[in-house]
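Just scan my protein:

. . .
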Amino acid sequence: MSPARRAVRPLAALGVAAGLALSRPAAGATPAQGAAPAACATDDPPPAASAGQGWPAALARTISFHAREISLRDALDRLAAVAGIRLSYSAELLPLGRRVCVSHDSVALGDALTELLRGTAVVPVVAGSDLVVLAPAPAAAAAAEPPPQSVVVLDRVVVTGSPAGAAQRPLAVALGVVDGRELERQAAGTLAQTFDGAVPGVWVWEQSPASLLAQYGSVRGASSFGLSYPKVYIDGIEVANPLLVTQIAPEAIERVEVIRGPQGAALYGADAISGVTNIVTRHDTPDPGAPRARIQSRFGLANSAFVPRSALSQDHSLALSVGSNASSAGLTVDFGSVGEFIPGGYARHVAASGSARQVRSRSILTGTLRFFAERAGAPPSPLLPDAASQGMALGATGASASTPTGSDQSVVQYTLGMQAAFMPTDRWTHTFVAGVDGYTLGGVLDTGAPVPSPVDSALRAARGGADRATFRFSTVGRFDLGRRASATLTLAAEQSVLRQRTRDALDAAPATADAPDGEAAAAAAWRPRDRGDADVAAIRYVDWRSNSGLSAQTNLTLLDRFFLTAGARLERGEDGLGLSRFATLPLLGGAWIGERGPVTLKLRAAYGKGIRWPQTPARASAWNDLRALLQSAYLAPEEQAGVEGGFDLMVGRTLRLEVTRFDQTASGLIQRVGTAGDTARVGRPDPAPIDYVLQNVGRISNRGWEMQGTVERGRLALTGSLALVDSRVQRLADGYTGDLRPGDRMLGVPARTMSLTANWSGSGWNGSVTAYRAADWINYDRLALARACAGVDYDGRDFVGTNLRDYWREYAGITHLRATWNRELSRGLTLTVAGDNLLNRQRGEPDDITVLPGRTLSVGLRAAF
């Protein structure tokens, strides 16, 4: 029996035993505090009308309001709009994401609010003629420091997996949710700090400040060769290039929702082959008299073995919010920098995000704005001191060493969009999303090839950009099939248009007739030129592509315990050459929930299929080869299909355990394969005349287990995760000439990823310590490759095909350790002390040439006023 099976067998047995124990609910069992009613049936009799008896005037207003399956926040805001009042509440005291159903006819507003707030520690208090404050109840107010109300996980309303938002309870797939306020407490600002350990099965390599592209080590294995990534949305607006989303501002994030695997493609379409990430921005409602501005400054020093003194890091942010629960807006501005952690290696960024929200009794309108600009150096690798090796090195610092020292890389991104939800009745919800996301690149270098091509110099750095416009309309209908059954029908249509601009520089120098010999002529023909060389021809290429999809999905619910989901999406993609492709992306899943006292068990299973067209902006920005990208139009698309199954076990608010088994098959994965011709032996130390072509690899299997657990005891909370992944080549495609063979593990995919986080909350302070690690993967020995390619007797044929296997090596991985401590100095003033990379590991992943900043210690102050 394999170690993976031995590791999860006790957990699977625990799930089966719990399922047998929960097959019948205990008599007289009551829902946990803060939980929504078990059933959301609108034919239940509403509370008796009180005609406003006993309520002050503002709460005695008579209202009628009906809504199904909405979040507590939306219910409160729409209820206030119906009554014509202003409502003030705190997100720290209420489970605003909890699922609720409301059905009231001619009842007092106070009675309706009391029903909605059942199980919470707040009560409605009149603070003005049209202002109602949801204040702590007297018993809660007497407590020294009541803990925030936790959201019951299964009744949390999420937007990923349903266009109009729905409870997590009926979802048949494993959904990861990362809370933005927790990220803020942990001072997490990078994608790796957001995902690694928090979402099992997703691993992002720690990123050098001099690298502007994200590197995913695994999203349930490999969905592409070196370019695995989830489809990314920001408030429902598709990001044009997911690899450019490398940093987040936690103070502007409400939560991050993640679906792993191809099951999300039935709703989200092409490019969701390995999963979907939805970043939900924060729409804070400022309380009257509460702080409307927050300022934060943080300074730190990063240790490094490659410079004589520590590099200064700094980050500053300003957040503003205005309005009320009915109409609000917010703006967050952030800028920061990291000094030279290696010679020439630095980074500076500026970011801004804005949001607006308007609520009416039957509509909710939200707006999103994002801007991000970053500039970083492109330094040569400090691990290769000699100039010849530098000329061949692909620095995992984010630059090719053939780049002139001091050159810069830059990226500018933007997002602008809106979402409008209309609820003409409590049965139907219509949602319209429109937005545009784009980026511009300057000098972003290609680091993906094991051996640099002669055009992989500074001339072939990615320049250009793309803009993607997205339009999506969906309608969701909810129907009662008696008192014990219900159904939800979702219909959606989506159209996206992508305009991609590529500026490619090609060496136009011919092989001269008076060259001393044929090899020297070939060398001259392939020699990279300086940026100002007049012989360099710049090619500007504009490509238009479109993608459209029609989807239908139905969800059946019986006894609020059995759930069945089935749906499909018809996808059509058209590239710049006018070539159209079609695909059908199905989804089938089911879930069962059993409850007995404080114990809840959910069993779930789902099948899905996803697809990625050969031409994508992520591939263009990462590979920077116009000829190869044009050739990719004739390759087969990448596809992945498979199943997942598992269970979620919850014991009150003390224990939560999630276990998932996945088995997926990916086909048509595209790899950049090196080729060398007769001109390979040139007897010179210049970059190798190796060219690259894109080829479909064949069939890949991705199998493994994901586990995550949380234990809370008093003020201490422990959270751990473990992912076991086996990503392996099953079969090669006809005509494939690369270095992979059947039975090989996919390169760069760790077999194990794990994490452990401890959180402790004291009186006026909290602290956390997180350790996370990726272990056991195979990748290229880039140091050995760089030195071998720099030799005078270099032969390009030694670095293509199966010969490249001689430069494979195993990586054991390194452990990352980070810690944060927050102390409230006074009302509205908080001190934060953070430490990152506390074990001071600068090398070791994802290859042997990557250099990261060393131990970083920072101190910051956050003020609210």
In short: Residues 132 and 847 are 58 Å apart (CA to CA). DSSP finds twelve helices and 42 strands in the chain. The chain has a mean pLDDT of 81. The two ends are 60 Å apart (CA to CA).
